[in-house]
Design brief:
Helices cover 29% and strands 15% of the residues. It is an alpha/beta fold. Helix 3 packs antiparallel against helix 11.
Length: 547
């Protein structure tokens, strides 16, 4: 296909997108589209051939990276065997049972039952219904209030959207779910929220007053994200969740942890509850359970709650794709990869490195705070550091209720594509670009891959490129040996052969005047994966001197 034809095809696809698809959060007047067509590791390619570094893991879910062939093979094998069957009533399938067993193994203590769904919003809808149904089955019919927090995000269903604490999800949709109360989020940077008091003390006093105001006999549950994602990667103080758990337990109120984002390694633990040392009554999951390869969600349920749900005719809430065997097979393989490749440890290690390096940005006048846990990091942007006035990044989208638009930047790299500093082929540059690509393409001193045009990878302060090293244009791929090495790269010293020519080369005639006076260096092609580019080892330099 010619370049002109490719451009025309891309433009046609983009135009059809504008005409046909409704995108979440996209104003109709916006003409720009980025149509992705390929993904591998932490890289993406769009329909126009541009390449991108996925620094957010899609929507914070691509734990194992894009394009894993083993996941595709597992899905295909399961589809040939049993692609789908219902999990209603007494029906089940082996993959759903195996996945439930695995989830219970890695879950916090006390969570021994699993309810499978198709995603995060469905899981939160089910968890809220479970909490109310649990109290109803115990004879507490009026116990239906749900406590949530401002700036929280729990999905866009009727119940989950009502629990979400952002006005944009409530405006224009008519009455929301009744009996939902939103509280102050634990946002230590925003001291003005707490009247100069300790953030945890303020939040706990507010929670206690709210319980007294509504009456503990009317409250079913409190729902919260261990670390608030959409709200700004808000990391609560260490004592926040343990004290909340203690207060709720004293009044018989269930605690629902929304771990759609935080579960399956994003924080460096299987679950955020384990990071904070808390045992909730229900945990809501999705996203990282399959790393986005197929839709799937799960609600982990404590035994007392599950026992009440199973009474009489059982829990009367189900979805068509409950326990989908193909999705469960993919999830099982995904969890194997997370464990087998040590991604929990890697998330902690690289997350700590990123947090340390990004903290230097706090010297900038527009950066108020850098915060994070594991592979969940946020940069608070301010117009004024003294007053902590947030930057209005999308003023035109401010809602009629005065909701503040986003003034923070999220960073949630793909754990499987982040290398330890010692394993990067350009170690001294790894500290400037921790989430470097899988090391088959090393980071150059400018922070950009030799073969890829990456996004947002600056070199170190004061770096100057060595003279004489010419960079190819970004849109031109360098020629390569069939075995994988760059054409023109110096071969390693151990592959270099020295030949003394005394009249004729073994394979070709010597150049005129060369007999007896000139030595020739014959290079074998570089081994597969060799990334040359001008750097010589000490051994290679000594070999040149001997020649």
């Amino acid at each position: 296909m010619s370049t002109t034809s490719a451009v025309s095809a891309a433009e046609q696809l983009i135009e059809r997108d504008r005409q046909l698809l409704i995108h979440p959060y996209l104003p109709g007047a916006t003409e720009e589209r980025v149509v992705m067509t390929e993904g591998a590791g932490c890289r993406l390619k769009d329909v126009e051939g541009r390449e991108y570094l996925d620094a957010t893991g899609g929507l914070w879910l691509a734990q194992i990276g894009h394009g894993r062939a083993e996941i595709a093979e597992v899905a295909a094998r399961q589809m040939r065997r049993l692609e789908y069957f219902t999990s209603f009533w007494e029906f089940s399938n082996d993959r759903a049972i195996e996945l439930a067993s695995r989830l219970v193994e890695i879950a916090p203590d006390g969570l021994s039952r699993v309810y499978l769904t198709s995603g995060g919003s469905e899981s939160n809808e089910a968890a809220l219904r479970m909490a109310r149904y649990f109290h109803s089955r115990r004879g507490h019919e009026g116990r239906d209030w749900i406590l949530a927090r401002r700036s929280a995000y729990h999905g866009i269903g009727y119940g989950s959207g009502s629990a979400s604490g952002l006005p944009i999800y409530h405006e224009g949709f008519g009455p929301m779910l009744p009996h939902v109360r939103h509280l102050t989020p634990p946002w230590p940077y925003r001291r003005e929220l707490f009247d100069g008091r300790d953030a945890t003390d303020f939040c706990l006093d507010e929670l206690e007053r709210t319980i007294e105001d509504i009456g503990p006999e009317h409250i079913a549950a409190m729902i919260g994200e261990p670390i608030m994602g959409v709200g700004g990667m808000l990391v609560p103080p260490d004592d926040y969740w343990p004290r909340v758990r203690e207060l709720l337990s004293a009044h018989g109120i269930l605690l629902i942890f929304d771990e759609v984002v935080t579960a399956f390694g994003r924080t460096g633990s299987w679950f955020g509850a384990q990071h904070f040392g808390v045992e909730p009554d229900l945990i809501v999951t999705a996203k990282g359970i399959t790393s986005g390869y197929v839709p799937l969600g799960a609600v982990l349920v404590s035994e007392p709650v599950a026992e009440m749900l199973a009474r009489d005719h059982g829990f009367p809430v189900g979805f068509t794709y409950n326990g989908h065997p193909t999705a469960c097979a993919v999830a099982l393989r995904n969890l194997e990869i997370i464990e087998g490749e040590g991604l929990l440890d890697r998330a902690r290690e690289i997350g700590d490195l990123l947090l340390r390096e990004l903290s230097s940005l706090e010297q900038l006048p527009v950066v108020g705070e850098v915060r994070g846990v594991g592979m969940m990091l946020g940069i608070e942007l301010v117009a004024d550091k003294q007053s902590r006035t947030p930057i209005s990044m999308h003023a035109a989208r401010t809602t009629s209720s005065g909701a503040r638009p986003a003034s923070w930047c999220a960073i949630a790299p793909i754990p499987s594509c982040c290398r330890r500093r010692s394993s990067c082929p350009r170690r001294r540059w790894a500290r400037w670009w921790a989430p470097c690509a899988p090391c088959s393409s090393a980071c150059s001193p400018t922070g950009r891959s030799r073969r890829h045009d990456l996004v947002g990878a600056p070199g170190p302060p004061g770096h100057r490129r060595r003279p004489g090293r010419r960079r190819a244009p970004a849109d031109r791929q360098p020629r390569r040996w069939p075995g994988g090495g760059l054409v023109g790269a110096r071969a390693p010293a151990r592959r270099r052969r020295r030949i003394r020519v005394d009249g004729a080369h073994p394979r070709r005639a010597a150049p005129a005047g060369a007999a007896g006076r000139r030595r020739h260096l014959q290079h074998a092609p570089p081994p597969a994966g060799h990334l040359g580019g001008g750097h010589q080892s000490r051994r290679a330099r000594h070999a040149d001197r001997r020649l």
